[in-house]
Amino acid sequence: MKLVFLMSSLILAASTVVTDSPNEEPDDLSSYKTESVLSEKAHLETLLFHNPDAEPIAIEDIHVLELEEEVCYGFDTSKYLPSNFNPLKGKHDLDWSKIDLVELDEEVNLGFDTKDYLPKGFNPYKGMYKHARCNK
Hints:
25% of the residues lie in helices and 0% in strands.
């Protein structure tokens, strides 16, 4: 795990040095030191991804730490909430089968008449309800 962290840090550092160089791009690419950068990148990738001495890491060995940060508002929130307040009360009590969802149709005003830009006799629903016929 330390090797993976070290190699990824080195690759990040190497790519940062390459991309954030203040030098302007030269007209002649032969004077640019791309070969040394590419060889260093290839060396780091070989160490990171093709190291035969490194043992594979089991997924059970990876531990994720979740840090819980305390939020400080600078005042006591309990003074402004009802007594016995529970923010999670009723969270899972909704019965979605009893709730009617209503979609409101909103009129869209584009600011111009769309009929002026469509062919004569245009029907957007033409052919929508044709059913395939089966020959027996």
